[in-house]
Amino acid sequence: MCEVKKTSDQIINYGRYKNMKNIEVMETLRSSDNVIKAAYALIDEFTGKKKTGKLIATIRLFIDLYSRRLNGEKVTLKPIMDYLITWEMTGKMETMISLSTSCQENNFCKAYRKNKNFICKDCYAWKELNAYSTVRNKAKFSTLILCNVELLPCDIPMVNNRYFRFEAFGDLQTTIQFKNYNLFCIVNDFVNCTLWTKNPFIIEKALKEFDIAIPENFKIIYSIPELDRKITAAEKKAIIEKYPFIWYFFAVYSDNGMRKVDCGYICKMKCSDCNYFCYKHEAPQGTLIQEIKKGNENK
Ligand code: SF4
Ligand code: SF4
Question: Which among 205, 145, 191, 151 has a CA at the least distance from the CA of 170?
Answer without folding.
Answer: 145
